[in-house]
Specification:
mainly beta; two-stranded antiparallel sheet
Length: 74
Amino acid sequence: MIYSYSRGHKIIYINNEWVYADNLEKVNDERACKRCGNKPTSEGHDFCIKNRKGVISACCGHGIDKGYVLTREG
């Protein structure tokens, strides 16, 4: 079985699609972050670290992993 996490929720790959492990619903952007309890921004950013100046990519870790921030300066 292939599994990963989406905003802190365990997801599994079944029948050519990603679904939530707890209820087998298709993964979508409606489920809030398991750590902060907020949904992503309309741009798809993690709510707790949204729209930081000079940031190219970032993730809060969602209570599963350590977060990271990648800036234009590296």
